[in-house]
Design a protein that fits this description.
Bound molecules: adenosine-5'-triphosphate, magnesium ion
CATH architecture of the largest domain: 2-Layer Sandwich
CATH topology of the largest domain: BirA Bifunctional Protein, domain 2
Number of helices: 15
Distance between the termini: 22 Å
Shape: globular
Number of strands: 31
């Protein structure tokens, strides 16, 4: 490709709307343009990268026996109503009506569609297992589309669905996909971690998210530096903490004027936050309740929501708080309440002589002993894991990091086959439900994640496997015929040998070309100046390390190949 022809409009300034590096660089380097919030045009450079990621994904899916197909983006509502998700999906679903007033949606995912397809064609156990996948646009009207391709409303996903005879088959399919995902993200040159994730309403332990480790990641993960435990903080289990034994002292009410926060309270009473009980009031579609965690802990709302089996979970308003406790927020607590649902974190129940709100403005109780002074409706693990908490597997202090979820593997069991009645006849001619799994990769998000991990102050540094072009050839002086002829020769040789190259034939100063080369992030830059013409020495600069090599015209091709294999 000649740079003079390449449609890659680079920008000098960083567009103000872009908050994270991948978004800034993709706009600046001429990879994407915004059409609407969370909706983008992929310009040629981006499209080339996306095709590379897709090719890697395809190879690895096919290697595991996956068969590619293409399902419609427009999906009729009926199958979504059968599984109950027409309502559950809420505002995130793009909905539309046809001229006959029938309901449709733009596919946010395809479990309903694939299950409906497979159930009508698969009758016998002999036809299973099946691994079916597609790579296409998905549509989700995200509340907060942001960060460019990271959280789009239209984005590219690979989604594979597995259909097995039984749970053992599902485990095999799951392991295949887990392995394929590890290979895909390794081949993409990403530093990633599979982490245990929250399976939501399905329960069990059958889901992992593949997280690219990056500070800009929207997900928080914990990992153990000693064993291989790693989990999304939403999922991480916690063992209750047991403090040293103390003699229980009598409950006492104490005036604590104006101490509405744990900070104000602990300062006023001169107690440590881990001796206080934080009481939070929540409202769900089923009613309101109180949740208790230690003052230095946070509630894990995902765990709480799973525990309460509710669709919505919000902080209760003042009226609901008053109804449960007769008090305003800031001074509420579990002591002396009747007919109120109270969920206590297991660590709270181990406290001695703690402090909590007295359900009376400007008063707290001290010397509260859970179990004696109040009995919760239920004790459970509802707190959020924190850095240095003991690893749930080996007790070593865990570390926290941020992650970008680039993929997820999920055991669905019969969540969709049951409501959609996807059955087959087993060896004995008995009807059985198909056992399913689903496995997604955010292809466009993976491109953004790669930039988050691979860039510097000058621009993108593509891993060679994803780069839109592997090399750029820059003749220093486009008016010098010897240089331009040599550049054309090398350009032809590289392309003939299968290396995608750009020849920067633009009538620009070398500085401008070098800047664009760094911004776009070609792994190798071949500069041709007087040294190349007079001394037969070709300068090759590695974008990632900044190393410069001189190769002769005779051997540069092998050397370029060897270099690219390391990038
Ligand atoms: P998230 O928690 O980030 O919203 P999700 O768990 O809803 O993602 P899945 O349904 O598991 O997403 O989709 C599979 C993959 O698709 C995700 O792992 C992610 O890489 C990608 N993906 C999901 N939503 C988006 C989005 N809005 N923009 C870009 N990629 C996305
Ligand atoms: Mg997910």
């Amino acid at each position: 490709m000649l740079a003079s022809q390449l449609y890659a409009p680079t920008l000098r300034e960083t567009p103000a709307e872009a908050e994270i590096v991948s978004h800034q660089l993709m706009l600046r380097a001429g990879f994407i343009r915004k059409a609407a919030g969370g909706v983008y045009t992929y310009l040629p450079l981006a499209w080339r990268v996306l095709r590379k990621i897709e090719a890697i994904v395809r190879e690895e899916m096919n290697a595991k026996g996956g068969q590619e197909l293409a399902m419609p983006i427009i999906q009729p509502a009926e199958m979504w109503k059968d599984t109950g998700r027409w309502d559950v999906y809420g505002d995130e679903m793009f909905r539309l009506k046809d001229r006959h007033n029938r309901d449709f949606c733009l596919g946010p995912t395809h479990e309903e569609m694939i299950t409906t397809t497979v159930k009508s064609d698969v009758r016998s156990y002999r036809q299973l297992p099946l691994l079916l996948y597609q790579i296409q646009n998905k549509y989700r009207d995200e509340i907060r589309p942001r960060f460019g391709l990271m959280r789009g409303r239209e984005f590219i996903m690979k989604d594979l669905y597995s259909f097995d005879r039984d749970e053992q088959g599902l485990n095999e399919s799951y392991n295949k996909m887990y392995d394929a995902y590890s290979r895909i993200f390794t081949r993409c040159g990403l530093n990633f971690r599979p982490v245990e994730a929250d399976p939501g309403a399905i329960g069990g332990s059958g889901t992992h998210e593949f997280m690219v480790v990056a500070d800009s990641g929207e997900a928080a993960i914990v990992y153990c530096p000693k064993c291989d435990y790693a989990a999304n903080v939403e999922k991480a289990e916690l063992h209750p903490i047991t403090p040293a034994n103390e003699t229980a002292l009598p409950l006492e009410e104490k005036a604590t004027p104006g101490t509405k926060t744990i900070e104000a309270l602990t300062a006023f009473l001169a107690v440590a936050p881990d001796k206080t009980i934080k009481t939070l009031a929540y409202t769900t579609e089923k009613g309101s309740f109180l949740a208790l965690v230690r003052g230095d802990h946070e509630v894990n709302e995902i765990k709480l929501q799973n525990l309460m089996k509710c669709l919505t979970l919000e902080m209760a308003d003042e009226a609901a708080v008053a109804k449960m406790t007769g008090c305003t927020p800031g001074f509420i607590g579990p002591v002396g309440l009747k007919g109120v649902t109270i969920i206590a974190d297991a660590t709270v129940m181990n406290l001695f002589n703690a402090v909590c709100g007295a359900n009376k403005p400007d008063y707290h109780y001290i010397q509260v002993n859970p179990g004696r002074d109040f009995v919760p409706t239920q004790t459970a693990d509802i707190r959020m894991i924190q850095e240095n908490d003991p690893c749930p597997r080996c007790s070593y202090p865990v570390k926290q990091a941020r992650g970008i979820e680039v993929g997820q593997v999920f055991k669905l069991f019969t969540k969709y086959s049951e409501p959609l009645k996807a059955t087959y006849l087993d060896v004995n001619g008995k009807e059985q439900l198909m056992v399913m799994g689903c496995y997604g990769i955010g292809v466009s998000r993976t491109m953004a994640a790669a930039i988050e991990q691979h860039h510097d102050a000058n621009g993108i540094i593509w891993p060679a496997a994803l780069a839109p072009f592997q090399t750029v050839i820059v003749p220093i002086n486009t008016k010098d015929e010897a240089q331009t002829n040599l550049a054309k020769t090398i350009y032809k040789q590289l392309n003939d040998a299968g290396y995608e190259s750009v020849l920067d034939d633009r009538d620009e100063r070398p500085g401008v070309k070098f800047k664009d080369a760094d911004l776009i992030g070609y792994p190798l830059k071949i500069t041709l100046g007087p040294k190349a013409v007079n001394e037969n020495l070709i300068e090759v600069k590695v974008r990632r390390s900044g190393e410069v090599f001189y190769f002769t015209l005779e051997n540069y091709l092998q050397e370029v190949q060897a270099l690219l294999n390391t990038l």
